[in-house]
Automatic annotation (TrEMBL):
<protein>
    <submittedName>
        <fullName>VanZ family protein</fullName>
    </submittedName>
</protein>
<feature type="transmembrane region" description="Helical">
    <location>
        <begin position="65"/>
        <end position="82"/>
    </location>
</feature>
<feature type="transmembrane region" description="Helical">
    <location>
        <begin position="94"/>
        <end position="111"/>
    </location>
</feature>
<feature type="transmembrane region" description="Helical">
    <location>
        <begin position="44"/>
        <end position="60"/>
    </location>
</feature>
<dbReference type="InterPro" id="IPR006976">
    <property type="entry name" value="VanZ-like"/>
</dbReference>
<keyword id="KW-1133">Transmembrane helix</keyword>
<keyword id="KW-0472">Membrane</keyword>
<dbReference type="Pfam" id="PF04892">
    <property type="entry name" value="VanZ"/>
</dbReference>
<feature type="transmembrane region" description="Helical">
    <location>
        <begin position="7"/>
        <end position="24"/>
    </location>
</feature>
<feature type="domain" description="VanZ-like">
    <location>
        <begin position="36"/>
        <end position="114"/>
    </location>
</feature>
<keyword id="KW-0812">Transmembrane</keyword>
Amino acid sequence: MDKISNIFLKILPIYWAFLTYMLLRPGVENHEYFFMFDGIDKVLHLGIFAMLGFSFMAAFPRIKFSYFFQIILIYAFLTEILQEEMGLGRSMETLDIVADTIGCLIGYYIYKVLVKRFF
């Protein structure tokens, strides 16, 4: 288990930095692809935060749930506030925060299920 934790301790900062860049870069609406639909950004938020939650738990498996949840939730709120305040074509959306929260919880529970099953 410590080996997996060490791997995710290296992956997590890289993923988190990339995620921050992607969430704060200038926004462009793009509907030219067949898979684009209204609400796809909520699905993306859910997925990227599920991966963040999973990676965070894999890196810090002994962290209390309340600390984990607070850290991820503060990050979700901060990125949404910064999107609004930076004026780069992005805006703060409450449903993004909801999707972020659900995503991090999904990542947390996937991690817990995998640990219980395989370790």
